[in-house]
Specification:
Number of domains: 1
Strand content: 15-25%
CATH class: Mainly Beta
Bound molecules: 2-oxoglutaric acid
Number of helices: 5
Largest sheet: 8 strands, mixed
CATH topology: Jelly Rolls
Distance between the termini: 43 Å
Number of strands: 16
CATH superfamily: q2cbj1_9rhob like domain
């Protein structure tokens, strides 16, 4: 079958390396318009988008909801995982200019509770993402080696939930995923990846849909909440969530809080410490 959006080379690179990038989603102007919508919401509700409040904002903000269900992103995802697509969760990875925040080498699948590790994660840039601004860096092919040992550091500047890190030793052959606003990368939840602090003078804004799942994936760490994306209806082993009905609607906030409380339990399963998520 003809791919809907990805090129053969992108699909091959995903199969082999565990990621493909860059993938065009929208024009730079459209991405900047989305950035302005997001920044208007940030100004209006600063607490809601504070660094510890950035999980699953697609459930409460229309701009993030529209990105998570964007038809071009869905087409690319369909090329990788097939026509039945569930939207599991989102994270805003925002690094301010000069922000010391970084992401240590890790594999997303480690603490997500989702089994098997099928599906794909989309990372959409709303500002330039490059070596200077702290783009993601991937170890090609590292998704093939199963889940490696992660050490929880809870490091202050480490943006990850537990500051979890893999010791990759001296053999760092990371590939930087350089994106202009409106491009995305797609990655396997088992790929080893990291990112450096933002040394640029602009914000680095990544909207991450983590992950798009085919229906057979289950949440084995607790209750699994998903939205329908495409194809067959949400299967009964998940709890189906409705889409955001606007910005900061009271019912949506109640639902997002419930989803995030369960999500924090799953992410912190067996952890010695917790951050305020
Ligand atoms: O945005 C970043 O710098 C890291 C994001 C990441 O680790 C992920 O999306 O899995």
């Amino acid at each position: 079958m003809m791919p809907k959006h990805l090129t053969d080379a992108q699909m091959q690179s995903y199969e082999e390396d565990g990621f493909c990038s860059p993938v065009d989603v929208m024009s730079e102007a459209d991405a900047i318009a989305l950035r302005h919508r997001l920044e208007a919401v940030e100004r209006q509700f600063p607490d809601v988008l504070a660094p510890n409040q950035r999980n699953n904002t697609h459930l409460i903000l229309s701009v993030i909801d529209e990105i998570a269900h964007h038809p071009v992103i869905m087409d690319a995802v369909e090329d990788l995982i097939g026509p039945d697509i569930l939207v599991f969760g989102t994270v805003l990875f925002i690094k301010e200019p000069g922000d010391p925040g970084y992401v240590s080498w890790h594999q997303d699948a480690t603490y997500m509770g989702l089994e098997p590790h099928d599906g794909t994660t989309a990372w959409l840039a709303l500002s330039p993402s490059n070596a200077e601004s702290g783009c993601m860096s991937m170890l090609p092919g590292s998704w093939k080696n199963g889940i490696l040992t992660h050490t929880d550091t809870f490091g202050d500047d480490n943006i990850l939930t537990r500051g979890q890190e893999i010791d990759v030793g001296e053999t760092d052959n990371g590939v930087d995923l350089v994106l202009r606003p409106g491009q995305m990368s797609l990655h396997n939840r088992r790929i080893v990846h990291s990112s450096q602090p933002n040394r640029s003078d602009d914000r680095r804004i990544g909207i991450v849909i983590q992950s798009y799942l085919p229906p057979h994936v289950r949440q084995e760490g607790g209750e699994g909440f998903v939205q329908w994306g495409r194809g067959e209806p949400v299967p009964p082993h998940h709890t189906a969530l409705k889409r955001a009905s606007g910005d900061m609607m009271p019912d949506d906030i109640v639902m997002r809080d419930r989803v995030n409380a369960e999500w924090a339990k799953i992410l912190y399963d067996n952890a010695d410490q917790k951050r305020d998520l």
